[in-house]
């Protein structure tokens, strides 16, 4: 189907404008166009929606939708059906309560009853949140034009910082649009329905992991807000968990059973999501289209930090040195580029993601201890040279970039070989001489710790974790601690040109809801051993591919990652 061939009431939208400072990229507009085409097919081509129609019309639409899928190549219906298991009592009981909408046959529920959905498989950094808000604007306009039912809209995401990010985007959107989006927490639903807003359209939001079939302090019973399943539900990375067993996945489908479900993520693996994918712009597509950095996963394994491995201190130091050497290598070129034109490249950053933070020999502690020794100058010359030789040996073979078989890494071998310990002090530690590490804390922030050498007046590293109190009491006991009076967060200022932070360390807590084009080197320590970790690595690598294009150009830059196999 061609978007341009749709009836005028379906294709006369401003798809480009988002706010005063933002316009949607071509691929984001394509995602919205595909969504509109799906809605047209569902609400007009199959059975034309009309006001006050009976619920049976929507059931007929679902049946026709599934047949349309089959006519266009779907041959996995049996695999997509929801299998019922009485041993999984909670899920079985939940679905049986809605047997009129989800009738069972031969111990399963046909996927036909769940097919009123579309998914957006879009890379981290591709602007999924902007697409969601733009699509909500389109839904509101389609409702006003009488083309789709006037159902309420609900956005579900799984962390507070992602909700804050949503609020910021909506504020930005409202600043440039007459039709305002008014965000209200789902708990406020009864009050809003009694007194609807006169100045815009209310869109509800909530933490997806706080939605259940029971009521507690923060946990809410979705049945109190069911509204006969007449919801347009947007999931923003809210599909986490075992698809077959997760009660919440079924709750989302129940809430939208007579409406529509929109699911956005960078990491879809379930066939039910992939089959209903309305737009695919995942990490490989994102990079190949030139919107992100080139990615290479190096063979440098960080095995020295694994619990069951018995590696020497020198091996641990060599691993840390390799990442500092790579960062120094990139920063030397950054300095040259900056002298040509300041906005041609971002300030490079090393990102180290770890599995453990607070245990006795946590990955983060082991990595930090090596940073400390290198800053003090306690570096074995032989270990340093071996670290460079290992990198040169691999990189001069011109390994391929991920997703880009026709592109390979090309290095300046002489430049890499000539890097010395003073270069690392200068480019990484922001110092000309070795020194002891000093800790910088901010009373109003219990989630970040900054570090500098006493021989420098500029911080070089930052730890971002859930709570720093354990570190201050144990790992940093005996260190000189400076309390900062400025109330500015180093983490929140990472993207500013004046940021002096060269190393960011932390766990999984900040890999989403955080926008930066700065990461050039990423370490994964003791991450990558299970299915959940694979999703995490894809998400966090996506954090490292962002670029800030200069006008009329979208060019990829290079990033390196090192991880445990």
Topology:
Blueprint: H1 8-11, H2 26-46, H3 55-71, H4 77-80, E1 82-83, H5 89-96, E2 104-105, E3 108-109, E4 117-122, H6 128-144, E5 152-157, H7 160-174, E6 181-185, H8 189-194, E7 201-207, E8 211-212, E9 220-221, E10 231-236, H9 247-255, E11 260-265, H10 271-275, E12 277-281, H11 283-288, E13 294-297, H12 313-340, E14 349-354, H13 363-376, H14 381-395, E15 400-401, E16 404-408, H15 413-417, H16 421-427, E17 437-442, E18 445-453, E19 461-464, H17 469-473, E20 481-484, E21 503-506, E22 519-525, H18 531-543, E23 558-563
Parallel strand pairs: 4-11, 4-12, 5-7, 5-10, 6-7, 8-9, 10-11, 13-23, 14-21, 14-22, 17-20, 19-21, 22-23
Antiparallel strand pairs: 1-3, 2-3, 15-16, 17-18, 18-19
Helix pairs in contact: 2-3, 2-6, 12-13, 12-14
């Amino acid at each position: 189907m061609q978007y341009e061939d749709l009836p005028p009431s379906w294709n006369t939208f401003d798809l480009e404008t988002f706010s005063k400072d933002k316009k949607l990229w071509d691929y984001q507009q394509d995602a919205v166009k595909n969504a509109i085409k799906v809605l047209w097919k569902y609400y007009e081509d199959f059975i034309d929606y009309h006001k006050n129609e009976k619920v049976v019309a929507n059931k007929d639409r679902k049946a026709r939708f599934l047949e349309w899928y089959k006519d266009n190549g779907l041959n996995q219906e049996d695999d997509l059906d929801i299998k019922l298991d009485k041993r999984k009592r909670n899920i079985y009981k939940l679905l049986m309560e809605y047997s009129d909408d989800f009738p069972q046959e031969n111990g399963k529920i046909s996927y036909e009853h769940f097919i009123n959905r579309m998914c957006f498989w879009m890379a981290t950094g591709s602007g999924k949140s902007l697409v969601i808000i733009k699509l909500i604007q389109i839904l509101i306009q389609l409702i006003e034009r009488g083309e789709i039912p006037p159902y309420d809209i609900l956005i579900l995401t799984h962390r507070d910082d992602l909700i804050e990010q949503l609020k910021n985007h909506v504020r930005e959107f409202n600043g440039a649009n007459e039709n305002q989006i008014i965000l209200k927490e789902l708990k406020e639903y009864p009050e809003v329905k009694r007194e609807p807003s006169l100045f815009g359209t209310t869109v509800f939001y909530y933490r997806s992991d706080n939605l259940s079939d029971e009521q507690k302090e923060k946990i809410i019973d979705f049945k109190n807000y069911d509204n006969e399943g007449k919801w347009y539900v947007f999931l923003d990375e809210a599909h986490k968990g075992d698809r077959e067993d997760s009660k919440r996945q079924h709750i989302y489908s129940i809430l939208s059973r007579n409406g529509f479900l929109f699911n956005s993520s960078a990491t879809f693996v379930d066939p039910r999501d992939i089959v209903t994918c309305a737009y695919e712009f995942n990490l490989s597509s994102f990079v190949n289209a030139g919107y992100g950095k080139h990615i290479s996963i190096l063979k440098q394994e960080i095995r020295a930090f694994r619990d069951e491995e018995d590696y020497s201190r020198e091996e641990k130091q060599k691993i840390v040195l390799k990442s500092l050497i790579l960062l120094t290598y990139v920063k030397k070129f950054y300095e040259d580029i900056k002298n040509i034109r300041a906005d041609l490249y971002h300030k490079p950053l090393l990102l180290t993601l770890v599995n453990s933070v607070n245990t006795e020999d946590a990955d983060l502690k082991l990595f930090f201890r090596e940073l400390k020794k290198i800053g003090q100058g306690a570096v074995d010359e032989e270990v340093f040279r071996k670290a460079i030789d290992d990198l040169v040996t691999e990189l001069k073979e011109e390994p391929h970039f991920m997703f880009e078989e026709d592109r390979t890494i090309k290095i300046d071998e002489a430049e890499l070989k000539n890097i010395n310990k003073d270069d690392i002090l200068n480019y990484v530690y922001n110092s000309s001489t070795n020194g002891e590490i000093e800790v910088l804390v901010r009373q109003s922030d219990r989630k970040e710790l900054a570090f500098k050498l006493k021989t420098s007046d500029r911080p070089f590293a930052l730890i971002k974790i859930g709570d720093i109190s354990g570190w201050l009491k144990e790992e940093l006991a005996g260190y000189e601690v400076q309390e900062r009076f400025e109330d500015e967060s180093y983490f929140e200022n990472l993207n500013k040109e004046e940021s002096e932070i060269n190393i960011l360390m932390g766990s999984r807590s900040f890999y989403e809801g955080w926008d930066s084009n700065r990461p050039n080197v990423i370490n994964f320590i003791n991450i990558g051993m299970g299915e959940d970790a694979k999703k995490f690595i894809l998400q966090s690598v996506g954090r490292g591919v962002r670029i800030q294009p200069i006008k009329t150009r979208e060019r990829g830059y290079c990033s390196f990652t090192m991880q445990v196999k």
